[in-house]
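Recap from last week: sequence in, structure out.
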Amino acid sequence: MSEVPNQLPTYAEIAAASRGWDLAIEPAELHGALCGWLAAGGEDVAAWPARVLADDELPTPAADSDLDTLRRVSVAQLEDRSFAFELLLPDTTAPTVERADALLDWCRGFLGGFGLAGGNESALSEEGGEALQDLARLAQASPEDGDDEEDQDALVEIEEYVRVAVLLLHGDCVMGPRHRKRLN
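Predicted structure tokens:
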């Protein structure tokens, strides 16, 4: 196994990989599902698409492919104590409404992956429970058409909130129990 790259594949690379596998899912939603699975304590396995998308017919991504890199980098970023975790979204040159729609897709995917991994709400801190509820509200939202600087700034703030919420949930469901296990 090669060293873990420190950067996610691009949105376009994951879109191409998804099309190559005939996946009917946008890159942001796919990454959200993977991160939800991992944040809830789902197993880090090479055959992650079958688990995360609940489709046992899906093959295992080739080692060092874009889909494999997506998993390996996501795991490393979630585990990184320097808060390096990133969301896979269209870059900042894309229209604001497109980026907002992708963020909402990301949240929908996250909730699906979190649920599939059996995210234990009783393990959540009060803040973690609120964060999960906020992600659920975002997943139900629809982007409004707007592309001015105020809309862009608001989107950046929401992206940052989602990023921190995911780290909080991962901390509650994975890091906390792991730490408690080491203490016992």
